[in-house]
Structures are given as structure tokens and as C-alpha cells.
Design goal:
The chain is of the alpha/beta class. The protein is built from 8 helices and 8 strands. The strands form 2 sheets. Strands 4-1-5-8-6-7 form a 6-stranded mixed β-sheet. α5 links the parallel β6 and β7. The longest helix is centred in the N-terminal third of the chain and has 49 residues. The protein is globular.
């Protein structure tokens, strides 16, 4: 009897030993497998996102420069009607630099401004959303007809005699205090986000800000006579920054009265 018990105990010990040995081998293999799969799926996700040029890292970087604005985009502008006017269009290219036309740059930036403002709850109307020619007076008339609360026209500058000049300048009608406040708010936010050279807030009697019945301003977002400005204005990220700054300025102005 005692001999049988010893054999039985020895068998149990062998089974336990084999089980422990198997456990010691299997667990590291499982851990390694999980680790490899995690790396694989992370690479697949990064590759898939890269196809559209949008990755988690890019989104983080975008959020970082967006929060550089001293005035974050506000969600308190619901119900406000804003008219955004991309300068020129169609048969009127505006100023040009090589293959870069003002009408194309202003439209790209204006459409981005529209999207930012819509995210804030604003009702946004565009004078044009494609390569269409619209008379200056018709632009102002459309804003008046739609009874917009605010009008902003977007243009590019050109100074043939001095190609070294670069930067942003913003205009309002003389003696229009509300226009000055809007122009100043937009100007400051654009400079904050883009780091562009300050060419100041000025007065002028441009048709689109003279003939409109609401608060109005016009911004020149850069000089197509300056090589660096042309390079920047042709880049999608800089266009996004410019648009964000304009939208931030508009919401900053509107929030003074909300």
C-alpha cells in the first residue's frame, strides 16, 4: 500500500511540474503576441489615416496652433448672420503672382472661415462659393438684402514698387466705430495665430464696406508681391490659420454684445 501511495504522489508531482513548465512558456508567448498585435494595429491605423493626410498627431498639432489664439472660437454666436465675401472671382482674378491668383486664395480662406463660424453656430452667407464674378455693388446689395449682422471681405494685396513689404492690413470706413472694432478684433486675432507682419488697421472707402448697411470690414491677408507671403498663402495649413484667426476675430467682436 505504501508503495502505491508513493507512486501516486510522484505522478501528481509530475503533472504539476509539467503544468508549471507549460504555464511559464505559454504566458510569455501570449504577452509577446498581444504586444506584436498592438503595434500592428497601430501602424495600420496610422497608414489608413495617412491616406487622407489626417492623423491623430496632425489633429493634435492643429489643436495646438488653434489654441494659440488669444480668443478661442466661441459657441455663443448662434443666430448671428455673417456675410463672408471672397474678393474677385471669375473673369476678375484680382492681383496675381505667377500662377497664384488672388481670387483663388481668397475663396479658399473664405470657405474655411465659413466652416469655422458654422461650428460656432453662426448663420453664414457667402457672396460666392465658386469661381464666379460678382460686381462689387452687387456684393454689398446681397448683404443688405439678406440683412446680415456683419460683413467681412477678404482680399490679397500687391505692392509692385516694394516687394519686401509683407503682412496683413485691415480696413474699415472712416467714422464707423463698429467697423473699427470689427477690423481691430479680426486684425489682432489673425496676427496672433499666423505671426504675420503687422501692416496696421486703416480707413478706406472700399465699395463693399461703404455700401453695406451693417458692421463691415475688409482684410488684406498678405502681399502677392512678396515671395514669402505667396509661399505661405499657397499652403493649406497657413490658409487654415488665417481662416481661424479671422473667425476668432469675428467671434471676439460679436461676443462684446452677447
Amino acid at each position: 500500500m505504501s508503495e502505491k501511495r508513493r507512486v501516486r504522489k510522484t505522478g501528481k508531482r509530475l503533472i504539476l511540474a509539467y503544468a508549471l513548465r507549460s504555464f511559464a512558456v505559454v504566458v510569455p508567448v501570449l504577452i509577446a503576441t498581444v504586444f506584436v498585435w498592438m503595434i500592428f494595429f497601430k501602424d495600420v491605423a496610422r497608414t489608413s489615416a495617412g491616406a487622407d493626410g489626417i492623423t491623430e498627431n496632425n489633429q493634435t498639432e492643429k489643436a495646438a496652433w488653434e489654441t494659440d489664439a488669444t480668443q478661442k472660437l466661441s459657441l455663443s454666436v448662434q443666430g448671428v448672420t455673417v456675410m463672408i465675401d471672397p474678393g474677385h472671382g471669375g473673369e476678375d482674378p484680382g492681383t496675381t503672382s505667377g500662377t497664384v491668383d488672388e481670387k483663388d486664395i481668397t475663396l479658399k480662406v473664405a470657405l474655411l472661415v465659413r466652416d469655422y463660424l458654422k461650428e460656432c453656430g453662426a448663420n453664414v452667407i457667402m457672396t460666392r462659393e465658386d469661381d464666379t464674378f460678382i460686381n462689387k455693388y452687387d456684393r454689398a446689395a446681397l448683404a443688405n438684402e439678406k440683412e446680415a449682422d456683419l460683413f467681412l471681405s477678404i482680399h490679397c494685396n500687391y505692392l509692385e514698387d516694394n516687394p519686401e513689404i509683407s503682412g496683413v492690413e485691415t480696413y474699415y470706413m472712416e467714422n464707423a466705430d463698429d467697423g473699427m472694432e470689427l477690423a481691430t478684433a479680426v486684425h489682432e486675432q489673425v496676427l496672433s495665430v499666423t505671426g504675420a507682419d503687422d501692416m496696421y488697421v486703416r480707413t478706406n472707402d472700399f465699395v463693399v464696406i461703404r455700401e453695406t448697411n451693417m458692421t463691415a470690414a475688409l482684410i488684406e491677408i498678405g502681399y502677392l508681391s512678396n515671395a514669402q507671403d505667396v509661399k505661405l498663402l499657397s499652403q493649406k495649413e497657413y490658409q487654415q490659420k488665417m481662416a481661424y484667426g479671422i473667425a476668432a476675430g469675428i467671434t471676439a467682436y460679436l461676443n462684446q454684445y452677447n
